[in-house]
TrEMBL record:
Coiled coil: none annotated. This is Ribose transport system substrate-binding protein. Residues 1-25 form the signal peptide. It comes from Amycolatopsis magusensis. It holds the Pfam family Peripla_BP_4. Transmembrane segments: none annotated. Keywords: Signal. It is found in: Cell envelope. Residues 59-313 form the Periplasmic binding protein domain. The keyword Transmembrane helix does not apply. It comes from the Bacteria. Residues 33-54 are annotated as: Disordered. Belongs to the bacterial solute-binding protein 2 family. Residues 33-50 have a biased composition (Polar residues).
Length: 353
């Protein structure tokens, strides 16, 4: 089960390595291209000088197998972004969960002398060496999501903020409890794999936000980031808690099973908040027909931004609207809370879980 999870998300950096939270305002547009499957994918588009085609840039792309909703969206978004730019040649490798195979694929891209590499490693530690090999060969690396062991292996890192996911989920629930005048709420949590730093960071942020509001985490279970485990562990939680006021589930792919357990138990007295930002959870939020009232983003749109950043690196451009001539070395995306009031704004970054 850990292998299945790693295919989707992986080991992330600790809170001390979180970047500056830069917003790519100068590289973005609301225009969305049609994807090959008939849907739309979130893309960034240069504005001002960045919007003008520059020299051709060959971008190599390597990621794990697209065998989960979030990871599939990462690969789809990267391709859609590359197709948006007439001055980008996209060279993807076949997604794999075999570390040695991914290393070999990246080495092939290095030998091919691509201009920039975008790497979402199956295992950041295991891929650190090949990332540094690329950098030593003069090929800048955009490291996505799962961080390498050393900054020497990448030019820029872009990824999500697990601690703030928990904080924002906790803040939303606390606000809802206070709005309902519930002074001692029972707040449940369906976490991911407890041994992973990312789960620990999410749970710590959740706990810290609730503590600051005068509340506490109540019944808690740990699942495996899969629908099956989400359903079984949530069923256990519901059996142990005769009453709940709120529930936070860390992951929307896992949330498919969490919702199934809630429906099977015929429970509806509490609100539920999801995590990551899947399209089906956003549709639940929009319909307002079940306990799902919000989800906290950990958006695969970061893959689109990674390709846009790779183009800028290859053309020696900075990020529009920033004073610096160079793109930042670390970019942390923001975990916005999607609710019924703003869900239409975020549907374009939703993914199929």
């Amino acid at each position: 089960m850990t292998q299945s999870f790693l295919a989707r998300r992986g080991f992330l950096l600790g809170a001390g390595a979180v970047g500056a939270g830069v917003v790519l305002a100068g590289c973005t547009s609301n225009e969305q291209p049609q994807a090959q499957n008939g849907g739309t994918q979130p893309v960034a588009q240069g504005t001002g000088d960045n919007a003008q085609p520059g020299k051709m840039v060959t971008v190599g792309f390597s990621a794990p197998a697209a065998d989960h909703g979030w990871m599939a969206a990462m690969t789809t978004n990267a391709r859609a972004q590359a197709e948006k730019f007439p001055d980008v040649t996209f060279k993807p490798t076949e997604g794999t969960n075999d570390v040695n195979q991914q290393i070999a694929q990246v080495e092939t891209l290095i030998t091919a002398k691509v201009d920039v590499l975008v790497i979402l490693p199956f295992d950041g530690k295991a891929l650190t060496g090949v990332g540094q090999q690329a950098m030593d060969a003069g090929i800048p690396v955009i490291n996505v999501d799962r961080v390498f062991d050393t900054p020497l292996a990448f030019r820029t890192w872009i990824g999500g903020d697990n601690y703030r996911m928990g904080v924002n989920a906790g803040n939303y629930i606390a606000q809802q409890m206070k709005a309902k005048n519930i002074t001692a709420p029972v707040i449940g949590e369906v976490a991911g794999i407890d041994s992973l730093p990312l789960t620990q960071e999410r749970s710590q942020g959740f706990k810290d936000a609730l503590t600051r509001a005068g509340f506490a985490v109540g019944p808690r279970v740990s699942a495996q980031f899969t629908p099956e485990s989400g359903e079984s562990m949530t069923a256990n939680l519901l059996q142990s808690a005769a009453k709940l006021d709120a529930l936070w589930n860390h992951d929307d792919d896992q949330g498919v099973g969490v919702l199934a357990a809630i429906e099977n138990a015929n429970r509806s007295e509490f609100i539920m908040v999801g995590g990551a930002g899947s399209k089906n959870m956003m549709n639940h939020i929009k319909s307002d027909a079940n306990p799902v009232k919000a989800t906290v983003l950990y958006s695969p749109s970061m893959a689109s931004s990674a390709i846009a950043l790779a183009r800028l690196l290859g053309q020696a451009k900075g990020v529009g609207d920033l004073a610096e001539h160079e793109i930042p070395s670390e970019i942390t995306t923001y975990s916005a809370v999607v609710t019924k009031e703003n869900v239409d704004q975020y549907l374009d970054v939703g993914f199929d879980s």
